[in-house]
Amino acid sequence: MLIVDKLAFQEKLSEGEKTLAAYILAHGMEIAKYSTRSLAEVTYTSPPTVLRLCKKLGFTGFDDFKQNFVRELEYLDQQQGKVDFNFPFAENDSPMRVAQNIGELYEEAVKDTMQLLRYEDLHKAVLLLKYHEEIHIFSAGTAINQAESFREKMLKIGKRVVIFNNLNYQRYQACCLSERDLAMIISYSGETAQMLEIARQCKRSGTPILALTSFGENSLTCYADCKLTLSTKESIYQNLGDYASHLSMTLLLDILYSEYFRQNYQKNYTYKLERARELEQHRTSTNPILLNLHKENAE
Predict the structure, then answer these.
(1) Is residue 86 part of a domain?
(2) Given CA atoms 12, 16, 19, 21 in this order, what sign does their dihedral have?
(3) Mutual angle of helices 119-130 and 243-262, in 10-degree steps
(4) I need a labelling partner for 249 at 20 to 30 A (CA). Which of 43, 50, 112, 173 fits?
């Protein structure tokens, strides 16, 4: 749930907290200039009331709330781009118009994903990959296809990644994990019942969770030790295809792999090259570009 929705849903707030919530919603980005005391003064409440509201919303204090609230407003202001992410083409569009729109959608989805990516989240996510024996990926949807590509890359540098396509097997898989493993749960909505069941099982067994999910707070984020945010401009149902969310997943997984690779670059490259020479001798091509021969000829 977005912060603005939490502020609007005032059923469990005191009268003073309702006054604060209404003021914050009415003044939006202006809240960035306030301190706890100045906000209390302008709303005729008190600093403890401000802190109570922030904690009810899930934040450690007003500064934490303010940072996340402003970030959310900035993201919501950017929702309108050149292309409608849900309906990127029309029935009467020409083939090249369709191609152009999908290309622009991809550009915007990549830009959106990068704007949502924070250094501290990426750093923590890669540490989780490094210091756990196995990575177990869970997803109820077609994100498994993106995850399979990530698994292949990681296996080629010697890191074990486990994926089961069958949801029932995934539930049993979660029961076998321990604190030595890492659970990566991919869910665009963050509300899929099976994924939440798996998340709860992981918490019971002490298995850390890396979540790839949508912007804002959802049920999955409450269980996650680390979250990477997917581009969140597509409706769950009312769209022509999961273009942006799938591209965003692929991008984040490729970034995770690349940063994991970089942190032990020479060792990973040597391992990958040796395994390729041993196991992929059958792969060949008459195209010099694919074999890097064009570079040798140029030299």
Answers:
(1) no
(2) negative
(3) 60
(4) 173
